[in-house]
Design a protein that fits this description.
two-stranded antiparallel sheet, MetI-like fold, 2 strands, 310 residues
């Protein structure tokens, strides 16, 4: 197979994708940043207001409510998607037959339309007629826990987070499964011979070996949760009150419901900065941990060499 050495040829192949990325990603971001310094109702002339939108944002009580809700939403979604996805992937490695069928069945929710997922969970949470969740609680004798899940202030945020967490479990399961089956079996077979249990092999060998995949999936999951919008908006629209308001739903309301595009753009810029900072923090923590592990391995190797020399 020949290798392309001409740099102009690289540019020819990269240019279409690069142009598409610039116009579909960077241009909207640039426009959001520009509009965040403006006051504009979407029709009339734009008025430059400097940092007024950002000052208003940090004085806005609903902004802090949405920000706090977004963090809770993020934790619920990330825990559900990654922990259950990894668990299912590990169990799938022990399955000998119909692996493709199982992967397909678990992946289906990820390709179902958002409206269908929202409607399904609306029916599950329903009180009139009684939904599946309340019926289940009544069947097992916990009818006292039955409630109107999407209007109860103490349950609504968790209720709108669960569908998003459930929806993409299959996608992360497939990613983890592909990473686990790509590992060299000789590595953990040697550990089995030395008497290591399955749990020890999983946590001491398999998971550390797929740490790059863990970083990738964690980044995907975090950024997706920070931008979460469709299912919460379809289920509650941020209500009741602002109990399930997220940064994205609040941004949408300000820009498209209140026609305050300047303030909505300031909220959008905050979401972008928030996502970048979270990703940078996660990558920094992973690199620091890898550095410590590398240093520990180096020390152990030196000690081992000294023992062998003696």
């Amino acid at each position: 197979m020949g290798i392309i050495k001409d740099k102009k040829a690289y540019l020819v192949f990269l240019l279409p994708g690069l142009l598409f990325y610039l116009f579909s990603v960077f241009y909207p971001i640039e426009e959001s940043i520009r509009l965040s310094f403006m006051k504009w109702n979407g029709i009339g002339e734009k008025t430059f207001v400097g940092f007024d939108n950002y000052i208003l944002m940090f004085k806005d009580k609903v902004f802090y409510t949405a920000f706090t809700n977004n963090l809770i939403y993020l934790v619920i979604v990330v825990v559900i998607q990654l922990s259950i996805g990894l668990l299912f992937a590990v169990l799938l490695t022990y399955l000998k037959k119909r692996v493709t069928l199982v992967k397909t069945l678990y992946y289906v929710p990820g390709i179902v339309t958002t409206v269908a997922v929202a409607q399904m969970f609306r029916s599950i949470y329903s009180t009139q007629p009684v939904g599946l969740l309340n019926q289940f609680l009544d069947t097992i004798g916990l009818h006292g826990l039955a409630t109107s899940w999407l209007t109860n202030l103490s349950t609504v945020l968790t209720s709108v987070s669960m569908p998003e967490g459930w929806r993409f479990i299959g996608m992360y399961m497939v990613i983890f499964y592909a990473a686990l089956i790509s590992l060299d079996p000789e590595v953990y077979e040697a550990a089995k011979i030395d008497g290591a249990s399955e749990l020890q092999i999983l946590f001491k060998i398999k998971i550390p070996l797929i740490k790059d995949i863990l970083l990738l999936t964690l980044t995907m999951c975090l950024t997706g949760a920070l931008r979460g919008f469709d299912i919460p908006f379809l289920l509650t629209g941020g209500g009741p009150g602002n109990a399930s308001e997220l940064m994205s739903t609040y941004m949408y309301k300000q820009a498209f419901s209140n026609n305050n595009f300047g303030y909505g753009s300031a909220l959008a810029v905050f979401i972008i900065i928030e996502s970048i900072l979270v990703v940078a923090l996660i990558r920094g923590l992973f690199k620091e941990r890898q550095g410590r592990q590398g240093l520990l391995r180096m020390i152990l190797n030196r000690q081992k060499k000294r023992i062998e020399d003696v």
